[in-house]
Specification:
single chain, about 425 residues, alpha/beta, globular, PyrdxlP-dep_Trfase_small, NifS, Aminotrans_V_dom, PyrdxlP-dep_Trfase_major
């Protein structure tokens, strides 16, 4: 994207607080895995719908407009995900949506068997799978991830899957290592042995990088946290296949068939999803000649991946006369520097300076990053590496090479 004159500035102009914090002033935002920047259109849409007093399902024009906005957002998200049918719904958070889908899969799957997951997963899916495996009277089997590469492979799943697998979980991208797992290949490995398994994917970290294709993935559930997809806090998004939706789940007696939502949802939350999809559509039109909306979304995802890869490569190996992380003394890059699975994120540790001190020093220079500790969120990744913490630098497509240069200059001083 940086090669297209004016495009980077046009992208940055679409986001709120792109270069300054409303509380701390000018800063570089490299904490996108903790929550991405928000589209200005999302801010405007949120305010618009927050002011509307009418409710859905009423016999008036305002109510019909609200329902139309929800229907439009669902159709937009189906296109964004390239979903093969199924249902779009919103819940409390991405984590809550994962828990609900995994619970319903465990309680509704055929009797017996096991629940299969992997050690690379975020606790949002691991905790849900462990709990509902136990409640449904099944063993939980965990596939070991590759500690050095920071990911889990389809071969590792294939070695663990048996015909007894009833439910399986997959992490699309790790928020600690930044590595994407090959969801279609892993799902194919599972279905080759357990074709009726219900497969639920944690897409929370992956979504902002684009390139989601649920038709190719052949899974039953996919969860997203919209505040990490350029929308806002306060809700989660789920896609559930027709097969998963047909299982018993919490619903009102005699209510609509296949409904996942409990109570009235925020129309504005749905409407902001249309803003997100419109942004991908716009970006795809800037970087390609595609006219089909799905093709533009795919083009945007490809451009985002290429841009973020260029930034992480500069961060790792340097740019101009600035040394990269691999050349700084005592630095260990989580997942290895040469890793094609990386998506817009670099985590590293220093043998000389503790991770919290690095993050604090960067904050003092106006560069926002984050410490990942070996706790219940990240211990599954860091403890096998003998680390008690790491610095996470997470990018999005509005970040620039100049920002990476500022980061490297600061790290040269700090380390």
């Amino acid at each position: 994207m940086a090669d297209t004159p004016g495009l980077m500035q046009a992208v940055r102009d679409r986001f709120a607080h792109v270069d300054a914090c409303p509380f701390e002033g000018k800063r570089i935002f490299f904490e996108n895995a903790g929550g991405a920047l928000t589209l200005k259109s999302v801010v405007e849409t949120t305010a618009t719908y927050a002011a509307i007093p009418d409710n859905q399902g009423r016999a008036n024009g305002a109510s019909r407009a609200l329902v139309a906005a929800i229907d439009r957002a669902k159709a937009d998200m189906m296109r964004f995900l390239n979903a093969p049918g199924g249902t779009i719904f919103v819940g409390e958070s991405g984590t809550e949506v994962l828990f609900r889908m995994i619970r319903d899969a465990c309680l509704g799957a055929a009797p017996g068997g096991v629940v299969l997951g992997s050690s690379v997963e975020h606790p949002a899916s691991r905790s849900a799978a462990r709990r509902w495996a136990e409640v449904s009277g099944r063993d939980y089997v965990q596939v070991r991830h590759d500690d050095a590469a920071g990911l889990v492979t389809a071969d590792a799943y294939a070695a663990a899957v048996t015909p007894e697998v009833r439910v399986a979980t997959i992490l699309h991208t790790s928020p600690v290592t930044g590595m994407a797992n090959d969801v279609p290949a892993i799902a194919a490995a599972i279905r080759a042995v357990a074709p009726e398994a219900l497969i639920v994917v944690d897409g929370i970290q992956h979504a902002c990088h684009g390139r989601i294709d649920l038709t190719a993935a052949d899974v039953d559930g996919y969860a997203i946290s919209p505040y990490k997809l350029f929308s806002r806090h306060g809700y989660g998004l789920g896609w559930a296949s027709a097969r998963l939706t047909a299982l018993d789940h919490d619903s009102l007696d005699n209510g609509p068939e296949g409904n996942w939502e409990l109570g009235t949802r925020d129309t504005g939350a749905y409407a902001t999803l249309s803003d997100v999809v419109a942004h991908f559509d716009w970006l795809g039109g800037q970087v390609s000649d595609a006219t089909d909306p799905r093709a533009r979304i795919e083009a945007a995802g490809a451009a985002i991946h290429a841009h973020e890869t260029a930034l992480t490569q500069a961060m790792l190996f340097g740019t101009g006369n600035l040394a990269g992380l691999v050349d700084l003394p005592g630095v260990t890059v989580i997942g290895g520097a040469e890793n094609p699975a990386r998506e817009g994120l670099v985590s590293f540790s220093s043998a000389r300076v503790p991770a919290p001190d690095i993050v604090e020093a960067l904050n003092g220079r106006g560069i926002r990053t984050h410490t990942r500790k070996a706790d219940h969120y990240s211990g599954n990744i860091l403890q096998p590496l003998g680390l008690d913490g790491a610095v996470r630098v997470s990018l999005a497509h509005y970040n620039t090479l100049d920002e990476v240069r500022d980061l490297l200059s600061a790290l040269r001083e700090i380390l």
